[in-house]
Structure formats: C-alpha cells, structure tokens
UniProtKB/TrEMBL annotation:
GO terms for biological process: response to stress. SMART domains: HTH_MARR. It comes from Promicromonospora thailandica. Keywords: DNA-binding. The lineage of its organism: Bacteria, Bacillati, Actinomycetota, Actinomycetes, Micrococcales. The keyword DNA-binding applies. Residues 139-165 are annotated as: Disordered. Transmembrane segments: none annotated. This is DNA-binding transcriptional regulator, MarR family. Residues 1-137 form the HTH marR-type domain. InterPro entries: HTH_MarR-typ (IPR000835), MarR/SlyA-like (IPR039422), WH-like_DNA-bd_sf (IPR036388), WH_DNA-bd_sf (IPR036390).
Length: 165
C-alpha cells in the first residue's frame, strides 16, 4: 500500500466529514447542540430497543465519563431520558423524547441533504459503503434500506430511572 495514496484517502475522508459538519452549524444552533451531542442523538435508533449507556459509549467510541457528560447535556435540554434497563435493572438505557426525535430527524435530514456524498450516484455509494465497511471490518449496511427517520416504535420500553444516575 502506498503511504501517499493512503494519505490522500484520509485527507479526502476528513474533508467530507468537515464539510458535512460545517453545513450542520445552523441546525445544531437551532437545537442548541454541539457536534458531540448531535452524534449521540444520531446513535439512538428509535426503531431499536433503547441502547444502554455501555452500548452508547461503544457506538460513539468514548469512555463512560464523557458519555455521561454528553447524556447529561441532552437530558438537561429535554431531548433524552435515562431509564432502568428492563433486561438488567443495574443498567440504564437512553430514550429519545419527542423533542429528541424531532432534533434527531432535523440533524439527519440536514446531514444527508448537505453532505458532499450526495453528489455520488447509487453505484458509487454502494461501492463506497462496501469499501468503508471493509476498512472498519464491519458487514456492509444494506444500501436500499429506508432512510433513518424517527419512529414511535419501541421508543419508550423502559421505566424511568431515578434521578440518581
């Protein structure tokens, strides 16, 4: 592998991320979010069971204290709630509120409509997804899957946690 080619690829990837993030400023300001809090909202899929704090930390590649700080910010803004994990009462899960669903939807819509990746055609996107999945050693995501949009299914399946979390 050519170091120079790898460097070009990393710079291009960083440029796509930077351009996309730069174009999110307006929606982030409108919802009083930072990049980290927006990323945390995006990591909570309303079509799945609410993630545990441990799962969230893994999805966001951060440690528990950092995640607690981010989730506290989202909780203070009324975008998420912590609840007791129904499968493990010692653990807490993170639930989107209605306001959280709306903010998440706005962030995703802004990101998808403003990313430089939107210039790629379907075949190019499929190829990119496969290449990126190989790079991070994950199974490729189905490209023909419906877009990530808020859903009311399985959103609040846990009971609210006490305020001592």
């Amino acid at each position: 592998m050519s170091r120079a080619l790898l460097e070009v690829a990393v710079v291009a990837m960083n440029s796509v991320v930077a351009q996309t993030n730069d174009r999110l400023d307006e929606v982030l300001r409108a919802h009083k979010l930072t990049g980290a809090t927006a990323q945390a909202l995006w990591a909570i899929d309303p079509d799945e069971a609410p993630p545990s704090m441990k799962t969230m930390a893994a999805r966001l590649f951060c440690n528990a204290p950092n995640l607690t700080f981010v989730v506290n910010q989202l909780t203070d803004r009324g975008l998420v709630e912590r609840a007791v994990d129904p499968t493990d009462r010692r653990s807490r899960v993170v639930l989107l509120t209605e306001d959280g669903l709306q903010a998440r939807s706005a962030i995703i819509e802004a990101a998808l409509s403003n990313t430089p990746l939107a210039r790629l055609d379907e075949a190019q996107l499929q190829q990119l997804v496969a290449l990126l999945a190989t790079a991070v050693r994950q199974e490729p995501v189905a490209v023909d899957a419906p877009p990530a949009t808020p859903s009311k299914s399985r959103r609040k399946t846990a009971e609210p946690a006490s305020s001592s979390t």
